[in-house]
Specification:
The protein is an alpha/beta fold. The chain is built from five helices and five strands. It has a five-stranded parallel sheet with strand order 2-1-3-4-5, sandwiched between helices. The two termini are about 25 Å apart. The structure holds 1,3,4-trihydroxy-5-OXO-cyclohexanecarboxylic acid.
């Protein structure tokens, strides 16, 4: 994959903007990603974004990221709570992986309290709405040594 940073988005995140705006806000996924892209590009980084409603597509993207990407920011949506297969795929990635959520799953229904991804990510940022993505990018950039990351 020919990029510095892969942003990986799971099921239903393509519906952001109109999906439960009281929980997820009204910003679309494209808007979140474009904000990240502008900041990443200011550091000379390239960003690739893959969204899919299918687990296998996300797994393949994680595999492809091993050939070139330096870091992954992942919001796997509800797959975060159930997908050992995506967890295994991300575990193979050699660089930092940061898990991100717009909402705070720990403060929501019990099925959202578990993250299968947690054991293989560098850390998780959750509950700050759009700012979660910005903080995730700051985390990744700090881990990769960008001096102006914070
Ligand atoms: C989410 C939280 C998940 O529990 C949910 O299934 C999503 C979005 C978030 O960004 O807050 O799809 O990952």
């Amino acid at each position: 994959m020919n990029c510095d940073l892969l942003v990986l988005s799971g099921p239903n995140l393509d519906q952001l903007g109109t999906r439960s705006p009281e929980i997820y806000g009204t910003t679309t996924l494209v808007e979140h990603v474009e904000r990240l892209r502008r900041r990443a590009e200011s550091w000379g980084w390239t960003l690739e974004h893959r969204q899919s409603n299918y687990e296998g597509d996300l797994i393949v993207a994680a595999h492809e990221a091993r050939a070139g990407a330096r870091a992954i920011i992942v919001n796997a949506g509800a797959l975060s709570h159930v997908s050992w297969a995506l967890t295994d795929a991300l575990a193979m990635f050699p660089g930092p992986v940061v898990e991100v959520h717009l909402s705070n799953p720990a403060a929501r229904e019990p099925f959202r309290h578990v993250s299968t991804l947690a054991p293989v990510v560098a850390g998780t940022i959750a509950g700050f709405s759009a700012l979660s993505y910005d903080l995730a990018l700051s985390a990744v950039a700090t881990l990769l040594g960008v001096p102006e990351a914070l």
